[in-house]
Specification:
Strand content: under 5%
Order of helices and strands: HHHHHHH
Number of helices: 7
Helix content: over 70%
Distance between the termini: 11 Å
Number of strands: 0
């Protein structure tokens, strides 16, 4: 319980930083990683591989920063690979819903809609990771 409290505190700080600056400082990634050493249990070293899907997506598609990949890896270090991947899946589902709701909520003329479709939209990923991990812990225990 202590481990999760510190984990989500550090993750919420990372979410705020990502929303404000669109960057995740390395010291925050280290802080989240250090929560894996808190009791109970030991770090799930194999859980670091939970960052692999984001790494592959970042290499092939682009648009995913290195901080997001590192943070996802240390989430796996704390929670384990299966729990972290569940959280990632839920986070990406929330991101898609957020994007869809934002598109439906805008009522503009056709010219502005056409210009917006040509521009890429960027979202900070960490707030969605925070929510996905929290829901994943709540559902999965």
């Amino acid at each position: 319980m202590i481990r999760l409290a510190f984990f989500f505190s550090a993750l919420s700080l990372a979410a705020v930083m990502d929303m404000r600056t669109r960057t995740i400082p390395d010291w925050l990634v280290v802080l989240v990683a250090l929560t894996s050493m808190l009791p109970p249990g030991q770090p799930n070293l194999l859980g670091v591989l939970a960052g692999l899907p984001l790494l592959l997506a970042g290499i092939t598609i682009g648009g995913i920063g290195g901080g997001d990949v590192k943070l996802m890896g240390v989430c796996g270090l704390v929670l384990g690979a299966s729990q972290a991947l569940t959280g990632l899946f839920l986070a990406l589902c929330l991101l898609v819903l957020w994007h869809a709701a934002g598109g439906m909520g805008r009522k503009k003329n056709r010219k502005k809609q056409k210009e917006e479709k040509e521009q890429e939209q960027a979202y900070p990923l960490v707030p969605f990771l925070f929510a996905g991990m929290l829901i994943g812990i709540w559902i999965g225990g």
